[in-house]
């Protein structure tokens, strides 16, 4: 039994080390991982891996949705107050995210862009937020620039989210062939309802019913089994899909 424990520690450290190398993390993590196999691995998981996992992002989305339902303007008010009191880069990032959640995409894009001028110029999470904000603000060209930058910096970073931003940006730029290729690739790689829904929305807007129909059938089959929480998590994209499905 002691050998099983030791083996697990080593395997966990190796898993984290591979994550360090593949995701371009600071190499000092390798020293920590192999100097303190169990403790270093646990710290790495909680500090680096979990905050960027789909489970963690889903949990944050649920919390934000619940908070907005109880007090829709609270986070934006608090983010404004925090930035006015202490105008740090972190508070500006928080304000940018709050503005984007509140539908103020143009202001959010300006805030994200300001964050990218300083020491966080290469922060991929900020760049991802900027890409989303510019796309929502009607500036797909700028969103596409951020997508290309993220892929050049770290090809594996938030691959599904970046792929969808790439496809939607290209579609908004009128580059339908490139957009289709991005949607097809994302559908094959990730196979999520969000990908299918975004692909179907694009297909419906372009009048491509032959592409839209099997995607819609797949979405309807999967979504019929959702519980309330899953429906809440997917409501934003499903709302857009319902609007796209309406005739005329």
UniProtKB/TrEMBL annotation:
Keyword field: Lipoprotein
InterPro entries listed in its UniProt record: TPR-like_helical_dom_sf, UCP030959_TPR_rpt-cont
Classification via Gene3D superfamilies: Tetratricopeptide repeat domain
Organism from which the protein derives: Roseateles depolymerans
Keyword field contains Lipoprotein: yes
Protein name: Putative PEP-CTERM system TPR-repeat lipoprotein
